[in-house]
Design goal:
Low-confidence stretches: 6-14
Oligomer: single chain
Structural class: mainly alpha
Largest sheet: none
Distance between the termini: 10 Å
Radius of gyration: 12 Å
Helix content: 55-70%
Order of helices and strands: HHHH
Length: 77
């Protein structure tokens, strides 16, 4: 399974590159995992997951987890 976003018709503009762990985190959250579940699956602390998601939201200029999930789905994560 590839975690690299694939541009779709829903993608409005090129997005900044996300680090592999950021993509993995986003995949877990967009799949419905809680921060704690994602942390356990990735062998990280929930604080690290929160930090990754803050960085992702900053890079993508997205404010909420719901918007982030919608974006992840639109690019095929």
């Amino acid at each position: 399974m590839s975690l690299t976003p694939t541009p779709t018709a829903h993608t409005e503009a090129p997005t900044p590159a996300l680090a592999p762990r950021e993509l993995e985190t986003l995949h877990h959250i967009a799949s419905g995992c809680t921060y704690l579940q994602a942390a356990r699956q990735m062998g990280l602390s929930p604080h690290t997951i929160d930090a990754y998601l803050r960085r992702i939201r900053t890079k993508l200029n997205i404010n909420t987890t719901a918007e982030l999930t919608r974006w992840a789905i639109s690019v095929g994560l």
